[in-house]
Amino acid sequence: MFDHVTLMTLDSHDTTASAICWTLYNLARHEHYQEKCRQEVMDLIEGRDGQEIQEDLSNLPFTTMCIKESLRLHSPVQAVTRSYTQDMVLPGNRTVPAGTICLVSIYGTHHNPTVWTNPHEYDPQRFDPSNKKSQTSHAFIPFSSGPRNCIGQKFAMVELRVVVALTLLRFRLTPGVNPELGSSRVLFNFQSHHFRSCRGCAAEYQH
Ligand code: HEM
Q1: Which residues does heme bind (predicted)?
Q2: pTM of this prediction exceeds 0.90
Q3: What is the whole-number distance in angstroms between the Cα of residue 104 and the centre of ligand 1?
């Protein structure tokens, strides 16, 4: 019971927090994507009331592409392990004996150049639905896969969209420098926007 509660509360927090941070970091480093996401959020909220907006925050296709690309490039969980319950014959006639513990590298899969072109580049277009057919089903596994995959993945994606959308409405993200890490290590700054609301919805927005 203790393990389950710990998993649901603590592990789900730091994975989501890490995903939010990396998404904001990547948007700070790629201003044109940041602006495109912001525009998408503003288009969504224009002329609508709060309840409608909440329901529709899950409908942000480009922002979702940016979040997924962050989950690919900077996966909060780097690897998962599985124990073979039976002998497994692999291509090349090699057998993994039952009882072996196998580590599946999420980082390795997401950075494998045979799976992803220019894997170290931040390119949200990879997740354009029109490119989905060219991806294999296990190329993108930030939430793992199979019967013990993440039960919170849909909730996490909603959380991510809401936090990223509301942050972009209020702040412009710019790359910054952490003096303790040196100039080569870029963090990001939040610059506040003046944000006016119009008849209960956020329709006007100023730089
Ligand atoms: C971006 C956020 C998240 C990421 C990247 C993530 C990733 C993962 C991964 C990779 C696993 C599989 C571990 C394994 O196969 O051994 C997992 C399992 C799990 N996750 Fe998440 N997770 C996230 C958010 C959440 C949230 C928000 C919740 C709950 C509300 C949650 C609850 C769980 C639970 C309960 C399991 C265990 C499932 C099982 O063992 O059957 N996760 N998560």
Answers
A1: 150
A2: no
A3: 15
- Strands 79-83, 88-90: pairing kind: unpaired
Q: How confident is the model at residue 198 (pLDDT cuts 50, 70, 90)?
A: very low
With left for phi above 0 and alpha for psi between -120 and 50, is residue 104 left, alpha or beta? beta
Q: How many domains does the chain have?
A: 1
Kindly report the CATH number assigned to the domain that includes residue 114: 1.10.630.10
The residues lining ligand 1, judged by C-beta closer than 6 Å to any ligand atom, are 7-8, 12, 15-16, 19, 76-77, 80, 142-144, 148-152, 155-156
* Nearest residue to 26 via CA among 173, 179, 169: 173
- For residues 189 and 176, the answer to whether their CB atoms sit within 8 Å is yes
Q: Cβ–Cβ contacts within 10 Å for residue 189, how many?
A: 12
Distance 77 CA to ligand 1 centre (A): 9
- Residue 62: give the domain boundaries: 2-206
169 CA → ligand 1 middle, Å: 28
